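> @MW can you paste both from yesterday?
MW: sure, first one:
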Amino acid sequence: MAHEIQSDSGWGAEVARGCAESCGVPVALWKNMLELMYGGHTDLAWRLFDESWPAKQNGKSAFIGQFCKQLSTSHYWPDLEQTIGACPQK
């Protein structure tokens, strides 16, 4: 899965800061992260994130900040926060 996401054509030249969707990161990355998190596999979601992010791709910190900010707006956040904890600083 990580290899497929790394080679996805959805990667942009730069990750757009403050963007909520289509920000230069393939949908497959955040979609699969969410599925893992909502399924109780937060550890695998963060691992997928780390293994999928191309080494030469900028914006990793910007993306994770935006991802966590958006995630915290979910009405499921109180339950998710217990399993996710603090979002990692990347």
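MW: second:
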Amino acid sequence: MSDSDTPGSTLKIKSLGLSDPLHRYLVDHGTPPDEILLELTSETREKVGIMAAMQIAPEQGAFLTFMTRLIGARRAIEVGTFTGYSALCIARGLPEDGELICCDVSEEWTDIGRPYWERAGVAHKIDLRIAPALETLAALPSDRSFDLAFIDAKKSEYKDYLERLIGLIRPGGLILVDNVLWMGQVVDDDQRSDDTVAIRAFNDAVARDERFDRVMVAISDGITMLRVR
């Protein structure tokens, strides 16, 4: 594997404060991406260009599979699927009869991931719904039967996604939220883009929200972990 093919070289901007060699070391000493995930990363980069930076980093993928298995999740929701890397990782952590509902608005991007879901043997677990995520979430029964959610979509809607998920995730279930450190811009007062302001506001609200046990971890671009009380 050449340097250009290493997992750490494709999305190095996602891993704050790590040099390329240290990032490669971190990935290699966890559960590194297999051939299917590496090929999905490569095809994503080829087909969507600079937008490939939206794909989660390899250590995040391993983390998603780990956490899904750790809590014994059977039903999960993903808000923002892109080309399917995170969905594949979550689905791998589910049992054979598990279910992952994926919310996205782009058939073009999600179609890139579908063949890889098939190759990985997890396509039967994935229910992809092409529609605005808030509409998909609103249509789900509020029976709190889901165990896990992963939010990685429109930053200005993070608060709204979270509110919809409250009625869907069981007590003791997990909600994982990506990009909460936003390339370090959350602590730079000169950064006032709409996404930066939205993520700051979301982070501040969550920090005061007693409906959750909460921790922010510096994995890649930052993940907030919320355990529903």
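> thanks! Residues 117 and 123 are 5 Å apart (CA to CA).
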